[in-house]
Amino acid sequence: MKSLFVPSAIAALAIVAAALQDDANLEYKSLHHRAPRPQASGSTSSTTPVTLPPPSSANTGAPSTSVSPPLTSTPPPQSTSYSFSLASTNPTAVPLSLITASQSSFPTLPLASTATVGAIPTFISGAPALPNPATISPANYPALDKPPPTDSALVQQWKEEVANSGVSIPDHAPTNPGGCLNNTAIASDPNRCWWTCTGCQDSKDITQCPDPLSWGLTYDDGPGYYTSNLLQYLDEKALKSTFFVVGSRAISFPATLQAQYMGQHQIAVHTWSHPPLTTLSNDEIIAELGWTKKVIKDVLGVTPNMMRPPFGDIDNRVRAISLAMGLTPVIWTRNAGSTFDTDDFNIHNGVTPVQKVLQNWQNILGSASTLDHGFIVLEHDLFQESVEVATGYILPDALAHNPPFKIQPVVSCLGRSLGDGYIETNNNKTNPPPNVSAGGAPAASDGDATKSGAGRQNPLNFMVVSTLIVGVSGFALGLLAMLRV
Ligand SMILES: *[C@@H]1O[C@H](CO)[C@@H](O)[C@H](O)[C@H]1NC(C)=O
Ligand SMILES: *[C@@H]1O[C@H](CO)[C@@H](O)[C@H](O)[C@H]1NC(C)=O
Ligand SMILES: *[C@@H]1O[C@H](CO)[C@@H](O)[C@H](O)[C@H]1NC(C)=O
């Protein structure tokens, strides 16, 4: 039997955190100081508190504001008691009490030096030399973090490619803002197969790894200031990940993106401006995905062939457009109503305490132990807090897991080479592109969605609904904070 819980014989670090949320909320509203704050009441920890590095204003690349202002009045979750145990933590982990929305900026670490102009990625057969990131001029791209215009020549060209792809795009209207709750008829329509609302998935969606104990490691929304810190930890532990890149961030951090790629991580498409895709028109979806494919190709020389919809917001229309553009959707695992979402993103927004994120992580491990296949978890590298919880707690705990996990990029957990993660280097024989279907039939259509989603449709999951709503506003607010330098 696969036990995913730590045997008590292992020197397990038990942490029981009873966080008084109202106090925590008040605290971050009123205290903008750098001094370590006391550990949440009731918690015990055997980690060695780190000596805080000096403030990072002189550190290149780090945000110059030291404290993110409180950005949301969303009340924290009702539960005030969290309990989890970790098999191991990083001895230099930032103490949990400091991982809050209002923490000081910590220094960012330098990038590995392997990404130089003209370097050949020898780990991918047939990959072109690395472009010069200095040639990336923001003036040649749409405005950052806004839905790109749909009337440009390039978007017209991509529309034509989609129209000629042989993939039939279902004639569905965009969803209303407000997620499943504001779209009840659409949400329950099996022809829509709206994952967000019901967990419905298509046979082409990637939501898990085939092998038990295999974890397709993923981080979303970067590259950002703290991606380099995550990369350094991954390097130390010889771990490789998949990164779902926001096109606008690739403009802001091209050197980081090159370091991720040259570090043999998988680079994949998120979107240009991180909208919930089901709310967009076909042309807007094409523009979001097309510009993200293009900027990644301009920075790396290769184009990803996987995408993740922001907030997991995907239905048959979004699926078909993605597949027509050569992008296979990757979401994250759901099992018996529990989603493999750490909610690490919402620490930065002051919505979710780090203790809750670690409890989510423990719940994910417990759920994973019941699976006869591997899994994919939602985590983020855009913000300091989520990088700290990944490198300090989640990854060390996963590495100490017994039986061991096989932690790898999504393309690798599927048994494919890293080169199969890019359109130009993909082996089209063994891994046919999603917009080329063997029988000439459309790659996605209304009809086949329920078939493959059989047994996977959950009743409307209102927690997921609220996550989408909180997530959309949280992303905008968090980004605002990061960009306010
Ligand atoms: C599939 O998508 C790729 C990438 O967009 C494109 O180059 C190719 O022409 C498409 N193939 C078909 C059959 O549409
Ligand atoms: C629900 O949808 C309607 C129609 O698009 C829109 O006007 C309204 O703002 C939406 N409500 C919420 C809560 O988003
Ligand atoms: C696979 O097909 C794509 C076009 O869709 C092409 O760009 C690529 O070079 C092909 N892969 C290989 C290894 O030739």
Percent range for β-strand residues: 5-15%
The residue-averaged pLDDT reads: 80
Round the Cα radius of gyration to an integer and report it: 21 Å
The outline comes out as globular
Derived from helix and strand composition plus strand pairing, the structural class reads: mainly alpha
CATH class categorisation: Alpha Beta
Hetero compounds: 2-acetamido-2-deoxy-beta-D-glucopyranose
Strand order of the largest sheet: 11-3-12
Number of helices: 15
The CATH architecture can be given as Alpha-Beta Barrel
Spell out the CATH superfamily. Glycoside hydrolase/deacetylase
The tally of domains stands at: 1
Amino- and carboxy-terminal Cα gap: 51 Å
Please describe the topology of this protein.
Blueprint: E1 13-17, H1 21-30, E2 82-86, H2 153-163, H3 184-187, H4 195-198, E3 214-216, E4 218-220, H5 227-236, E5 242-245, H6 247-252, H7 254-262, E6 266-269, H8 282-300, E7 306-307, H9 316-324, E8 328-329, E9 334-335, E10 338-339, H10 345-348, H11 354-368, E11 375-376, H12 384-399, E12 406-408, H13 410-413, H14 446-453, H15 462-483
Parallel strand pairs: 3-11, 3-12, 4-5, 5-6, 7-8
Antiparallel strand pairs: 1-2, 9-10
Helix pairs in contact: 2-8, 5-12, 8-9, 11-12
GO biological process, one term: chitin catabolic process
Organism: Ephemerocybe angulata
InterPro entries: Glyco_hydro/deAcase_b/a-brl (IPR011330), NODB_dom (IPR002509), Polysacc_deacetylase_ArnD (IPR050248)
Molecular structure report:
The protein has helices spanning 21-30, 153-163, 184-187, 195-198, 227-236, 247-252, 254-262, 282-300, 316-324, 345-348, 354-368, 384-399, 410-413, 446-453, 462-483; strands at residues 13-17, 82-86, 214-216, 218-220, 242-245, 266-269, 306-307, 328-329, 334-335, 338-339, 375-376, 406-408. The protein is mainly alpha-helical. The chain has a three-stranded parallel sheet. The protein has a three-stranded parallel sheet with strand order 4-5-6. Strand 9 and strand 10 form a beta hairpin. The radius of gyration is 21 Å and the shape is globular. The model is unreliable at 1-75 and 438-467 (pLDDT under 50). One 2-acetamido-2-deoxy-beta-D-glucopyranose (NAG) binds at residues 126, 423-428, 433. Residues 33-84, 424-452 are annotated as: Disordered.
